[in-house]
Amino acid sequence: MFRIVDNARFWDRMARKYAAHKIADVAGYERTLERTRHYLKGNEAAFEFGCGTGTTALRLAPSVAHITATDISGEMVAIAREKAKAEGQGNATFEVARPETAPWPDGAFGVAFGFNVLHLVTDRAAVLAGVHRLLRPGGLFISKTPCLKEMNPLIRIAVPMMQLIGKAPHVAFLSAEDLEREIAAAGFEIVERARHGSRGKDVRPFLVARK
Ligand SMILES: C[S@@+](CC[C@H](N)C(=O)[O-])C[C@H]1O[C@@H](n2cnc3c(N)ncnc32)[C@H](O)[C@@H]1O
């Protein structure tokens, strides 16, 4: 099993490449932003984990009072900070942090985001408990997560081989059902479920869950 530090190192190594990577399904991505904005109140504080190079946080920043976007990778956070500075975006702050050990008080945020990250964490129950703690009662957790159990079974052979040579991080093989069950078990009620992909089979359910 991968420890947090190994994951962080993997994503540090990947960061510059990830920053240069173009969004594969732009229409699907825009749909996710549009549905997410639908739930945002301009006066609320937002939290994001697994923010990567900050692209989504910077797109959503104008729709919230402030966004605290976090990642385990210092390299990802450094790139996100560079982008925020270049864009002159003042209400997005980027920090190295994880929901399960985050230093902010209980109920500090009105909304939390986790995009393309829940399948990568080693202890989902702890992460979901951390997100739950950080949200105010009635706050929303909005996520989109690749459910690899819904993909070609060959990926189950390919990923462990890539992990052996350091070319893949920790990855969980979840179904959409597993994911919803785990989010509900953390104390959330699912209020929206959708698939936003515009190309082929979309294996990344978009979920909105209320505390
Ligand atoms: C596939 S990228 C997604 C980045 C961004 N959310 C997006 O949608 O483009 C996954 C990100 O999650 C971060 N990550 C991996 N494991 C994590 C964990 N346990 N807690 C928080 N972030 C994590 C990685 O460092 C990486 O930046």
Would you mind describing this structure in some detail?
The protein is α/β, with parallel strands linked by helices and 211 residues long. It has a single domain, classed as 3-Layer(aba) Sandwich (Rossmann fold), CATH 3.40.50. Helix content is 38%, strand content 20%. The protein has 7 helices and 7 strands; from the N terminus they run H-H-E-H-E-H-E-E-H-E-H-H-E-E. A 7-stranded mixed β-sheet has the order 3-2-1-4-5-7-6, sandwiched between helices. The longest helix has 17 residues. The protein starts with a helix and ends with a strand. S-adenosylmethionine binds next to helix 1.
Task: Pick out its properties.
211 residues, alpha/beta, Rossmann fold, seven-stranded mixed sheet, globular, binds S-adenosylmethionine
